[in-house]
Specification:
Strand 4 (about 110-115) and strand 5 (about 125) form a beta hairpin. The chain is built from nine helices and nine strands. Helix 5 packs parallel to helix 9 (about 220-235). The N and C termini lie close together (about 10 Å). It has about 240 residues and is an alpha/beta fold. It binds adenosine-5-diphosphoribose.
Length: about 240
């Protein structure tokens, strides 16, 4: 029987692809205040500062050196080759999972390559720079476009679909996340209460929620994730 698998990823899975994490040594939140660039209040206070922050991160995705690593590729292979359902829920706003081939994918914190119009609600593919001078191609209103990114204090996306998948899975993997931000950090606790899924953390080092997982496998994602995917596909998990 191939139980459904739910996988949660965080910034750690993209570290070896050259993208910064948030809370590691020298991470993003050590360089800029999250209150200024990752809250609705910060955007209201200084939209240009926020646009500059996300424009720089969006631009870094176009760097040829920034590409999916072996961990992203292993998760795409798992979705392709595992006989049961694999849902990938990422906190990341980069596009490395898509570029590796993952399709059954939820970006619960939004996507760097999309913009959202606060005037008409359209969500738009937006791979280039975004600013206050841009107009919505659907409603033509200028100055109401924002990054399609979930900021602190806002509700993450597709939560109902995520909890449905959690409630029906047999295996939950948490990869490259510090377990510092809810609701993602609470998924493992939710599963412990339900009691039917096996929970495994794969991280560089134990996260804040490490003790809540049945198993922990520690090391760089590009090494531990492909190995664990092989054990799943070999029916040994
Ligand atoms: N391989 C595996 N794990 C790694 C690697 C690596 N090469 N490098 C770092 N890590 C781990 C770190 O040990 C840490 O536990 O990745 C985790 C990164 O944690 P954070 O920087 O807190 O990133 P994340 O958990 O994704 O943050 C969650 O916080 O700021 C918000 O919205 C933002 O989505 C983000 C959320």
């Amino acid at each position: 029987m191939h139980d459904p698998i739910v996988i949660l990823t965080g910034a750690g899975i993209s570290k070896e692809s050259g993208l910064d994490t948030f809370r590691c040594e020298g991470g993003i939140w050590s360089k800029v205040r999250l209150e200024d660039v990752a809250t609705p209040e910060g955007f209201l206070r200084d939209p240009d500062l926020v646009h500059d922050f996300y424009n720089a991160r969006r631009e870094s995705l176009r760097d040829p050196a920034v590409r999916p690593n072996a961990a992203h590729e292993a998760l795409a292979r798992l979705e392709r080759d595992y006989p049961g359902e694999v849902l990938l829920v990422t906190q990341n706003i980069d596009d490395l999972h898509e570029r590796a081939g993952s399709r059954n994918l939820i970006h619960m914190h939004g996507e760097l390559t999309k913009a959202r119009c606060d005037a008409c609600g359209s969500v738009l593919h937006w791979p280039g720079p975004l600013g206050q001078g841009d107009s919505c191609p659907n409603c033509a209103v200028t100055g109401r476009l924002r990054p399609h990114v979930v900021w602190f204090g806002e509700i993450p996306l597709d939560m109902e679909r995520i909890y449905d998948a959690l409630d029906n899975c047999g295996l939950f993997l948490s990869i490259g996340t510090s377990g510092a931000v809810y609701p993602a950090a609470g998924f493992v606790q939710h599963l412990r209460m339900a009691g039917q899924a096996r929970t495994v953390e794969l991280n560089l080092d134990p996260s804040e929620g490490a003790s809540l997982f049945h198993d922990g496998i520690y090391g760089p994602a590009s090494q531990v994730v492909p190995q664990f995917v092989e054990t799943i596909l070999a029916g040994k998990v």
